């Protein structure tokens, strides 16, 4: 079963995403605090990390992202950032050296998010076979 790790301080959005992905056969693990997430990510080894930019901006995202990239066990896990355009702009100004492979702008539909996740999971599966 595919696994997504979700970091978002909005519990309602976490629940909505978790329920939607469960219907697709994807397990979702969620925490609200990026710093606390590092050990869980290393234990779970998800296929994708889905992170809310406003959560990173409000709770020491620099530490989380630096630690994530320094850990060889989890540094290659694809990440999707989600957020408002203003959050993306602020994030890019503060963290010029950090880029996300994928970004989905809020508001987005669950269908859009599922399609992006499915596309990444397909690529992850193909890369594991090679």
- The strand order across the widest sheet is 2-1-3-4-5
Q: Fill in the CATH topology.
A: Rossmann fold
Name given to the CATH homologous superfamily? Response regulator
Order of secondary-structure elements: EHEHEHHEHEH
Return residue spans where pLDDT drops below 50 for at least 5 consecutive residues: none
CATH-level-2 architecture: 3-Layer(aba) Sandwich
Would you count the extended β strands for me? 5
CATH class: Alpha Beta
Kindly state the percentage of residues in helix.
Answer: 40-55%
First-to-last CA distance: 20 Å
Arithmetic mean of pLDDT: 87
Largest sheet: 5 strands, parallel
> What proportion of the residues form beta strands (DSSP E)?
15-25%
* Helix/strand class: alpha/beta
Number of helices: 6
Number of domains: 1
What's the alpha carbon Rg, rounded to whole Å? Answer: 14 Å
Shape field: globular
Structure notes:
With 130 residues, this protein is an alpha/beta fold. The chain has one domain (2-129): Rossmann fold (3-Layer(aba) Sandwich). It is built from six helices and five strands, in the order βαβαβααβαβα. The chain has a five-stranded parallel sheet with strand order 2-1-3-4-5, with helices on both faces. It is globular. The two termini are 20 Å apart. The model has no long low-confidence stretch (mean pLDDT 87).
């Amino acid at each position: 079963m595919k696994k997504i790790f979700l970091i978002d301080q909005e519990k309602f959005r976490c629940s909505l995403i978790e329920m939607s992905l469960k219907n697709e056969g994807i397990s979702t693990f969620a925490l609200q605090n990026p710093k606390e997430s590092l050990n869980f990510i290393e234990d779970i080894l998800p296929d994708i990390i889905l992170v809310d930019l406003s959560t990173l901006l409000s709770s020491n995202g620099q530490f989380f992202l630096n630690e994530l990239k320094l850990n060889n066990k989890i540094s290659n896990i694809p990440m999707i950032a989600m957020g408002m355009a203003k959050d993306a702009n602020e994030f890019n100004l503060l963290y010029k050296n950090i880029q996300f492979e994928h970004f989905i702008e809020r508001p987005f539909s669950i269908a859009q998010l599922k399609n992006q996740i499915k596309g990444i999971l397909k690529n992850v599966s193909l890369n594991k076979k090679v």
